[in-house]
Predict the 3D structure of the following.
Amino acid sequence: MPNIKEEINIKELYGTQCTLAQKEFLEKFNVNIDNGLTAEQAEISLKNYGQNEISQSKPKKWYNYLFQSLFSPFNSILLGITLVLIYTDVVIPEKPSYANIIVILVLVIASTLLEFFEEFRSNKAAEKLKELVATTSHVIRDCKEIKVPIKDVTIGDIVILSSGSMIPADLRIIESKDLYVGQSSLTGESEAVKKLNNSELKLDDIKSVTDLDTICFMGTNVISGSAKGVVIKIADDTYFGKIAHTLTTGKPQTSFQKGVQSISKLLIKFMLVMIPIVFILTAWKHAMLTAFTFAVAIAIGITPLLLPVILSSSLSKGAVRMSKKKTIVKSLDSIQSFGAMNILCTDKTGTLTEDKIVLEKYLDINGDEDIRVLKHAFLNSYFQTGLKGNIDEAVIARGIENKIDINVSKYKKIDEIPFDFSRRRLSVIVQDDNSKKQMITKGAVEEILNICTLVDYKGEVSKLTREIKENIKTISKNLNKEGLRVVAVCQKNDINDIKNFDVNSEKNMVLMGFIGFLDPPKESAKVAIEKLNNHGIRVIVLTGDNAEVTRCICNKVNINSKKIILGSDIDKLTDQAVIRILRKVNIFAKLSPIQKARIVRLLKEAGNIVGYMGDGINDSPSLINSDVGISVDTAVDIAKESADIILLEKDLNVLLDGVQERKKNICKPYEIYKTCCKLQLWRSNISYNCKCFTTIFTNNTNTITSAKFII
């Protein structure tokens, strides 16, 4: 849950709208479910209320980047010295001297412009990527269902929701069927929440945002089901918008930023101590003005004037070279963390695997191929509504390949019981030309077994015995060991008398068999991981998939899978116990987004520089908490917003190229030292040889960790 400065009064904001009965709500707010707003009404509403954009998420202006670069820690010190020099070199002397001021200002401007142009360019490129995949929402206007950009959704719009939809604004649900919404981005709870047409609450029962059962919030997403909702709040007036304005924590500082900041603080403290001491020691021998001028000269001498320019130029050079290798750098400081990271946390799907799921097998209860199993799975996937996932697309593709789609016109869909994470299954009810109804269900093997009492083997139906159950589990586990994700398929025919179908209808079903999907490992993944390991980067896999499939894939890409820890085990352990496990274990399976974020946090607390690669809405907490968040151009908006670096290819080799570029070209201590030693610094007619100006101490990853400045 976000850290919020002030309590948001949920009852006052949403209580009445939540608890009003559906009919009363429609009458009170004059809502027309079927027609929606007219084009003129929508235009007037947009003029009155503005666009549906959170002010903090709007793109930064050019001057935001400029001021951010200008007032960096080192530049702030140099600007402070400039103010003192204006007094000592211009105001006090009879003949003003501007030389020192000009030198320092040139250095400040150079470092500022280098950082400004690179960050501005990279962030503009990232914004263009977001525009290419701009999120839209389905609304009803002028009696038609149309797609509009989320920023154009306005008060009074009727929004149509289905599985996979993003909630574009705060909505009051007016029609729904088995609607489950994921609110983890707001509440931290990974469990999907059911939303209703009519609230089961009274006004006094509402204590927190999680109690609201008829309100959907901007920034959340539909897990399963379908619904219509009326927009009641947009932009900054939404719960998400109010949280955005009251957040007290942002992205944590990286080790590099902390290092630069600590050096800046050390220099300031050193000057505050040195200047009075030098002034007191020289004031009794020389005039006050001379003593003060000398003390200021000492302050200038101990300040690494060229360091901001060197850092900015090195980081900018690295960002330019990385951009040529399909990498967009949103924050220059992140390049250092990118190259210095010693742990990369990544998901399995799409990074280690091709992210192209293929239906490999369709088997009966004894593990033999059976086209009838594919036929039933095809009807289920073909007729389901909402967002079709990779599994459904793979089933449909294989069905078309086997010409099953030719007979699909004989069926029509009667009803559907959408997928949700508690049931882990989806049912479709179809009717053929002979008016025979059939319920077809597919889902996780364990969940399907729980609702089946019979099995079908070669057209003969028999009782599902304990022995058959154990054999089915064994077959499923063996398929998992081969790297296949397994989904079970069942059906029921005696349903002609059922009028309204719901989850209670999913019982006494007949098990047909399994369908097995393969997401093969990338050919390049094994070599890339070996190279990352050779560069001192340990790869840790954090996935929501089951342990057996994960072990198979990890074995093929040469990641040690001797021990796999499950999310359920993590929850039972203290932070210290998890840290001990993290020293030895590289694979964590069946993880929730909250568990992933916890692992990233603990790795950082153990002294590691952690990179996290993710592309989903639930990856946002981990992307923010890592030292360097890495996303891809096809990721959801919130993932790209949270990331520091965006890859134009979801490939570990692109990561490796970026790491190598950084280590070749960024923060090379020898080059920095050599550059400094070629210069003669002069301040107030005092010349300093730079042979001892700056000494850089580095660790084994070429990361600047401390600096000693000697006059």
